[in-house]
Design brief:
This protein is mainly α and 606 residues long. The protein is built from 21 helices and no strands. The longest helix has 40 residues.
């Protein structure tokens, strides 16, 4: 490749920059060395976490594959096979909606990761002082953003594509074309995300957060309204022909021809078409049509690559300088109304515990990463729970009673599992993050025991409110009896307090005071162990209360009345199961907190 005129540009030190090829080889060499060091570190220090991540990813992939496989089999059996009109319309709707939603998510995730890599990284701060082209730094970080933002896409898209190919008996070229189609597609939204990130930071450095947040809110609001209108439509029965036509019409924008997700969907669906009757028409052959869509995706991906390099060369250094030299707004010395409400709520507690709770509350309120993820996950769960009563059936039917009870406990388990991820990610590192500032706490008349207990109270009480409301919403929408609702609420309390005690106790036993990043602390051995123990605890609590409640619910809500389903015997079983779970929760909280307090009190800070 001939060297361009840009190769002769002088570096800040006055020397000529190395050629683009030489520069690219140096960066690829650095990346290869980094990958080797990371793999060696994972093998030497984090084998449990690596094995757990790989095992859970394979489990998740297998579950998605079975879900998609059974879904497409149901479609072929009850709607029609490949070539049928309704089959084609249904599959097109599924593919276009699936990839269009992932298209939007990829743009945002790529933009956020690119910002973190280019403007909040010590590595780029160092690289900017070296004789390196700005576009090379941008491309180096953009490649990382593509990798980190797209692995989830491959985890979701690959089981969908493989399951559809197996169900429709697709030819070999369907599988051969799937991987390049997906790879070419991923590059486009990631490139657009990087380009818009640089554009906003170069020309709107003081408004870039507002623009991104406003765009995300508008997209989420429009999507939520469309989903709500589709599910809550009072005129048409759910999943009927009229409802299906109205839903397709409402989401028609996801099938627009100018969207890269539409090119990917069309390319996959064309490759899955049979060859019957098309052998004499070469340009209408399915694999030829699919290859045309592949060429379209590759050409646009290359254009995005050029766009990233051009914007990096023109805007990156200027945007970095503007962001670093901007005038930061001074904080007002006043108490926010949310803090005043929190102070009123904690006023009955001892003063030192209340002060520590207010401090943790302020840290949570000022960190959008924590509360925004909490709102998104629990908001989606709330939307799902609000629409769970749309599946109508007779309440006296045994299968319906079984289904309702099973779904209610699955909802309870899902709330617990999501809560366990939050306690692992945000509660477990809390004591480790106090390490660098522990001298401040050490000057206060507060014991280490009080510090650990305040973290436990903050996590347990703070998580109990939203979790209890979500479980209550699910139970009310499923019209469960009062006894089952009470059992669910008691189980929710045991889950919140048990998971909080486990995260705080393990965090006190295995702190990492040298690591400033909470995500890296949570990804270590202690965080992984906390996640595994939390999952086992959730399964134990739910099973102890779900099995007796399940049989009791069937015995009281269905016409079955045999010796096996005697309500009196089942009532005692239910009571013993709840008591056993309560004893297990008390033991778990006591052991986790006791060991954590003793370990934290014996620590020596240097």
């Amino acid at each position: 490749m001939p060297e361009s005129n840009a190769d002769k540009r002088p570096s800040p030190s006055g020397k000529s920059l190395p050629s683009e090829d030489r520069e690219a080889m140096l960066f690829w060499g650095v990346r290869a060395a980094t990958i080797r060091a990371t793999l060696r570190q994972l093998y030497a220090q984090n084998r449990l976490r690596t094995a757990l991540v790989i095992g859970l990813s394979l489990f998740f992939w297998g579950g998605l594959f079975l879900l998609f496989y059974e879904g497409f089999r149901f479609l072929v059996q009850y709607v029609g096979g490949p070539g049928d009109t309704y089959h084609a319309r249904t599959v097109q709707f599924i593919f276009h909606m699936f990839f269009a939603s992932l298209n939007v998510m990829l743009v945002f995730s790529s933009a956020i990761i690119t910002f973190g890599g280019l403007f909040a990284s010590h590595e780029t701060r160092f690289l900017l002082t070296q004789p390196v082209r700005a576009e090379r730094i941008v491309l180096h970080k953009f490649q990382e953003a593509v990798l980190f933002s797209s692995w989830g896409f491959f985890l979701l898209a690959s089981p969908l594509a493989i399951a559809y190919g197996i169900v429709t008996n697709a030819m070999w070229y369907y599988y051969a074309l799937s991987l390049p189609l997906i790879l070419a597609f991923v590059y486009i939204p990631c490139g657009l995300g990087c380009f818009f990130c640089l554009l906003l930071l170069r020309f709107l450095p003081s408004l870039w957060k507002t623009v991104i947040a406003s765009t995300a809110v508008v997209i989420i609001a429009l999507t939520s309204v469309s989903i709500w209108q589709s599910v809550r439509s009072p005129r048409d029965p759910l999943f009927g022909a009229a409802w299906f036509e109205a839903t397709i019409s409402r989401f028609r924008i996801a099938q627009s021809d100018w969207l890269p997700s539409s090119w990917l969907s069309s390319g996959l669906l064309e490759a899955a078409q049979p060859l019957d009757g098309l052998v004499d028409q070469p340009f209408d052959l399915p694999y030829v049509q699919s290859c045309l869509y592949l060429v379209l995706l590759i050409s646009n991906a290359l254009m995005c690559h050029v766009l990233v390099l051009w914007s990096g060369r023109r805007w990156y250094r200027q945007a970095y300088g503007i962001l670093e030299c901007r005038t930061r707004r001074a904080r007002k010395a006043e108490t926010a109304w949310l803090d005043r409400v929190a102070q009123t709520l904690v006023s009955p507690l001892p003063r030192e515990v209340g002060l520590l709770l207010i401090k943790d509350w302020r840290l949570l309120r000022r960190d959008p990463v924590q509360w925004s993820q909490f709102l998104i996950f629990f908001g989606l769960l709330g939307l799902y729970f609000l629409n769970i009563d749309r599946f109508n059936a007779k309440s006296s039917d045994v299968s319906y009673v079984t289904w309702v009870n099973m779904v209610s406990f699955l909802n309870l388990a899902v709330v617990g599992l999501i809560l366990s991820t939050f306690t692992t990610r945000f509660i477990f590192p809390m004591l480790s993050l106090e390490g660098r500032r522990f001298w401040v706490l050490g000057l206060m008349p507060v014991s280490r025991r009080t510090l650990v207990i305040s973290k436990f109270v903050f996590a347990a009480v703070g998580s109990w409110g939203p979790c209890a409301l979500l479980v209550l919403l699910s139970d009310l929408m499923l019209r469960l009896p009062l006894l089952v609702i009470a059992v669910h609420q008691l189980t929710t309390v045991m889950l919140c307090f048990g998971l909080a005690a486990m995260a705080v106790g393990l965090g006190a036993m295995m702190p990492d005071f040298r690591e400033p990043s909470p995500s890296k602390i949570a990804a270590g051995f202690g965080g992984t162990l906390n996640l595994v123990l939390s999952a086992l605890y959730i399964i134990l609590m739910v099973v102890l209360t779900a099995l007796p409640c399940h049989f009791y619910h069937i015995a009281t809500q269905s016409p079955l009345n045999t010796r096996l389903f005697d309500p009196e015997s089942l009532r005692w079983w239910l009571l013993s199961g709840v008591l056993t779970a309560a004893v297990g929760a008390v033991v778990s909280v006591s052991v986790a907190l006791g060991k954590g307090i003793r370990a934290f009190e014996s620590l020596e800070f240097h």
